[in-house]
Design a protein that fits this description.
Layout: E1 3-8, H1 16-29, E2 34-38, H2 45-50, H3 61-66, H4 71-74, E3 76-77, E4 84-87, H5 91-96, H6 102-113, E5 118-122, H7 129-136, E6 140-145, H8 149-168, E7 174-183, H9 188-203, E8 213-214, H10 217-225, H11 229-232, H12 237-253
Parallel strand pairs: 1-5, 1-6, 2-4, 2-5, 6-7, 7-8
Antiparallel strand pairs: 3-4
Helix pairs in contact: 1-12, 7-8, 8-9
Length: 254
């Protein structure tokens, strides 16, 4: 059965979509069959990263959950060389997901689990019903944050969201850990934020992951090329960071 993972934050601009996409790409490079589900109708960042083209006829999770369309019909292949796929997003996801049922979401994802080794979810930063839907079907949730105080404060809300879902709709939800993105080990602020993040992680019975993602221009460039960083700049430090994070995620979720 495929593992379901959501990398989240309740603050925008922390790079969660880029990290999710590059980890999914890295797993696909290892021969895994990976599906990305874009639940963010506001930005659809990960749909853009994938390079797939959408139009008025593109099927999304809105069509699957609220129009009872077949999930397989919404899946698009990202790469001819890799077993990497996406259920894309359009504005319809942002406009009409508030009436989607958790029971329908669980049924759909349960059916997809048998087809993929990993299913990743990408959601909008602002907490809403799509967060609840996503967490209700996730085995693991990882918190992506920047080494700054604002990013840390934004995570306070997601702690409450995780605990609410664990209590009401998904008692099996585990916290993967806190992922530090665009991290600079040389700054005192980064070290101070990491200490506070460790305290938050302890509250959630998890940890700050050992693999930290450095800030690099190549990450933005890989987005324009619609490939993961390990394909765009495979020998770079940041590619090695993503490879390390991918291995750590595999170890935790096996």
């Amino acid at each position: 059965m495929g593992k379901t993972i959501a990398l989240m934050n309740e603050k925008g601009g922390v790079g969660k979509s880029s990290v999710t996409y590059s980890v999914a790409w890295c797993l696909a490079e290892q021969g895994k069959k990976v599906l990305i589900v874009d639940m963010d109708g506001q930005m659809a960042s990960i749909t853009y990263l994938s390079g797939v083209e959408t139009n008025d006829d593109t099927l999304t999770m809105y069509d699957i959950l609220l129009r009872n369309k077949n999930a397989d019909d919404a899946v698009l292949r990202v790469s001819d060389e890799l077993e990497l796929y996406i259920i894309p997003s359009t504005n319809a996801v942002a406009d009409a997901m508030t009436t989607a049922k958790i029971s329908r979401m669980k049924k759909v994802i349960q059916e997809l689990r048998s087809e993929y080794d990993y299913i990743f979810f990408d959601v909008n930063p602002s907490p809403d019903w799509k967060h609840a839907l996503t967490l209700s079907v996730s085995d693991y949730v990882g918190i992506v944050m920047l080494p700054d105080v604002l990013s840390l404060e934004a995570n306070m809300g997601i702690v409450d969201s995780i605990e609410e879902v664990q209590a009401n709709s998904n008692s099996n939800l585990k916290v993967l850990g806190i992922i530090m993105n665009q991290f600079n080990t040389q700054t005192n602020l980064a070290k101070a934020v990491e200490d506070k993040a460790s305290a938050m992680a302890e509250h959630l019975q998890t940890s700050v992951l050992k693999s930290k993602i450095r800030k690099a221009v190549a990450m933005g460039e890989s987005a324009s090329a619609h490939v993961g960083i390990t394909a765009y700049a495979g020998r770079s430090d940041i590619a090695n960071d993503i490879k390390s994070l991918t291995c750590e995620i595999e170890d935790i979720t096996k």
